[in-house]
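Weekly modeling sync, notes
Attendees: S.R. (lead), two postdocs, one rotation student

Agenda item 3: backlog of single-chain predictions. S.R. asked that every request posted to the team notebook include the full sequence so nobody has to chase files. The rotation student volunteered to paste the first one in as an example of the format we agreed on. Action items at the bottom.

Example entry:
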Amino acid sequence: MEVYLVGGAVRDKLLDYPVHERDWVVVGGTPEILTAQGYRPVGKDFPVFLHPQSNEEYALARTERKSGRGYQGFQFCTDPDITLEEDLSRRDLTINAMAMDGNDNLIDPYGGQRDLQQRVLRHVSPAFAEDPLRVLRVARFAARYAHLGFTVAPETLTLMTNITHSGELQYLSAERVWMETERALAERSSRTYIDVLRQCGALKALFPEVDALFGVPQRADYHPEIDTGLHVLMALDQAAILSNDPVVHFAVLVHDLGKAITPAEVLPRHIGHEASGVKLVNQLCDRMRVPNRFRELAVAVTRHHLNCHKAPHLKAATTLRLLQEIGALRDPVKLSCFVQCCEADARGRLGFEQQPYTPGEWLRRACDAVREVSAGEFLQQGLSGKQLGQAIEKRRLAILNNLREPCHR
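Predicted structure, as returned to the notebook:
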């Protein structure tokens, strides 16, 4: 029985990139042998075992054969005679199809090291096209390594396009699509994930609400880049600078969905796109079963991002209602995430990338000041119930009125 380090740990070790987990392949082993040595079985589809001390995953070398639709439509064989090269041949990308033995000797039968050096994401074999999930995985790897100069090989992008056109993407579960998307939104360049999916047609198949933004014009005086889809990609670039939180990145991705359904006769204006966008955000979240923490911020940013841009000039009552509706008075973290999204939106425009976002700083100061108002003073005056709430609100409005800046037209 021989054991090899495989996959991402080898790839990232060669890239001098942080290695967060290690996976191992066992050649010449059987479930009985591993169980006898104290390994614990955990795999459902094929034999995977946890090491008795390290808890790292050890999988028996295997081959696979397409037997149905989607990423689960495979039959696996884990015969002890299966070689390491046969196991590696079933992997998605050449950079993921390398292994190391116990002496750190590299086994690279499919040119993964060469593609690492050339910064190319290339499929191992035509069998790549049998698994639709690989479309999302390649886009996610492109997002992870875009800052290192990695691009998708043209022939691999062609296979991804063929998968999209085959209709196989429809057999991916919403949970699995979201899992890959959430991970991609946490990568260094989440805009690259959207870019790659759009290039192969998968964005239209999986996220039609986002794909519909490309080609939609905006007013050039506000958006010199014109195209709404391009604006969203630029805003994602800014979001990556401001935060590494995928919740923030998702809210930025969907904040302008309402612009895709603006009637043609009123373009390039988008009056009321905030309200119309909320329905589309909820539609997308329902379909993809997006967790509530993503949905809540996305809805708040979609509904209120223009108010944030105008915050210093809003009426005191409007500002207080804004802070209440985004949950800022209960949780300062929600305000921080909301402002980061709005700043990314404001700076995600051609020529505005370096511009300070003063409305966000004003809204943070206003929230801090309003939060200082406590019920204690009014309780000492004997107020309670409705009167107490009215007194607190009156004090908060007075504070906001004093902070408010005049609107110059």
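Discussion: group reviewed the output briefly. Residues 217 and 227 are 5 Å apart (CA to CA).
Action items: rotation student to repeat for the remaining queue; S.R. to check formatting next week.
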